[in-house]
Structure formats: structure tokens, C-alpha cells
Amino acid sequence: MGVQSDKITVHIDEDLAEIVPGYLFNRRKDVDQQLPQALASGDFQTLRILGHRMKGSGAGYGFEGVSEIGRAIEEAAKLENRDGITQGIADLANYLDHLDVIYD
User: Fold this and answer.
1) What is the per-residue DSSP string for the chain?
2) What global pTM score does this model have?
3) What average pLDDT does range 33-55 have in this prediction?
4) Any idea which fold 8-103 has?
């Protein structure tokens, strides 16, 4: 994905307004805790599972970017590609930092 400086605007159905903040909070925990800890310990199985879950859940909430990043992390974990995983973590952090959710 590379570095993005602009807002990433995502339109979400207002029916999801109560659960989206919790979903995004959990993705932030992935960036800040779970993914780096798993990478540091070489736990590629956990990295693969976390990536797979993001791949499956992101689009369901309206966050295609989370699904794309999750897919990349899952694939990098299968290959035990530390650089790819590190890039995925950075991409997810960047995505979350620039996310602008609009409920309609």
C-alpha cells in the first residue's frame, strides 16, 4: 500500500455504527500488540491466523483495506517472510491512522 498522507474515507451502513468502533479498536490492538509480539517470537502460525481473520472480516464491515492487508500478512506468514509481515503491520497502522469512517 505504501505511505498515505490523505484520509481514507469509508462509508459504512449506519446499522453497524455500534460495532465498528470495537472492530477498529481490536485491529489497533493487532497493530500495537498481537502482530508485533507474534513476529518477535517467530510465531508464524498466529500471524497467519490473524491475517486470515482480517482478510475474512474486513470487507464484511466495509473495510476492504483491512481485508487486503490481512491477505498480505497471511501470505507473508505462510512464507515466514518477516519483511512482508513488518510491511503489513506498517500498512495496517497507516490505514487505521488515516481512516475516516462516515456512517450513512
Assistant:
1) -----S-EEEEE-GGGTTTHHHHHHHHHHIIIIIHHHHHHTT-HHHHHHHHHHHHHHHHHHT-HHHHHHHHHHHHHHHTT-HHHHHHHHHHHHHHHHHEEEEE-
2) 0.92
3) 98
4) Four Helix Bundle (Hemerythrin (Met), subunit A) (1.20.120)
